Amino acid sequence: MGSIRNNNNGNGRVTASSPTAATTDEDGAGPVEEFSPPTTEQLNMRCTGVKRLLKEAAELRHANEMFCARPMEDNLFEWHFSVRGPPDSPYAGGVYHGRIVLPADYLMKPPNLILMTPNGRFETNKKICLSISGYHPETWLPSWSIRTALLALVGFMPTHSAGALGGLECSREERRRLAIKSLDWRCATCGVLMRDALPALPPAGSTGHGQTERLLKEIRGTAGGTNKSTTDKQIGMGTALDYNQQSSDWGWPSTDSSRLRHSCGCRCDRRF
């Protein structure tokens, strides 16, 4: 099982920090939110959350052309990930890096997602407010996983922020510029350069291309529509019609599905 070393200290270990500590990333994009290290109880091998995370780490140990994620070497509850921008969108060609910070009672509560690479859709180094993130435990399902969260994150990128906390409304030109620039972005913590973070996209017609198309179908599905059994009040967003129109505006299909398929327009008052 692979893990990520921290390049910020001599012994390659992840430095423990207090919940209020903060550092600034190499691009000066602002303070990076820090979290407490896991407790002894969290690292108990008999803990359901730990068993699940070890299984997920094993399943995700090999990067695919759309995303990769691995835990930090000394903290199973913090992961780093890289995702490729969705095609047919201003993010096409970009690769974006971020952190996943998991709660002690993961499985029952969702992870926090934090993008570190400037992208024009989400603020950097701040928790992202989506229905699959820590801002909305009421919509999280224990059957979901880190892989599910990454697919949903990529699927949500082409949608409008609708004023949600942490969302940005940049021009398509600016997002294209940032997508190109993202390839030269390197994580100051793990040292990963974005142009080397993921395998290259396979050529059309190849065996690998079929796998990529299946992944893209999953990604498109995560942002495809709304489930009428889940009310707007439950997920804290605009109407289903509004959201489906947003998806269509970006050229992504709108299909009825699960409550995973919601961006957040709740304008939460929970602070980052």
Automatic annotation (TrEMBL):
Listed Low complexity bias regions: 1-13
InterPro entries found in the cross-reference section: Ub_conjugating_enzyme, UBC, UBQ-conjugating_enzyme/RWD
**GO terms for biological process?**
protein modification by small protein conjugation
The UBC core domain covers which part of the protein?
48-196
Cross-referenced SMART domains, in alphabetical order? UBCc (SM00212)
- Polar residues bias located where? 14-23
- Signal peptide location: none
Disordered: annotated segments: 1-41
Task: Fetch the Gene3D superfamilies from UniProt.
Answer: Ubiquitin Conjugating Enzyme
Organism domain of life: Eukaryota
Query: PANTHER family from the entry?
Result: UBIQUITIN-CONJUGATING ENZYME E2
Q: What is this protein called?
A: UBC core domain-containing protein
Organism (species): Heterodera trifolii
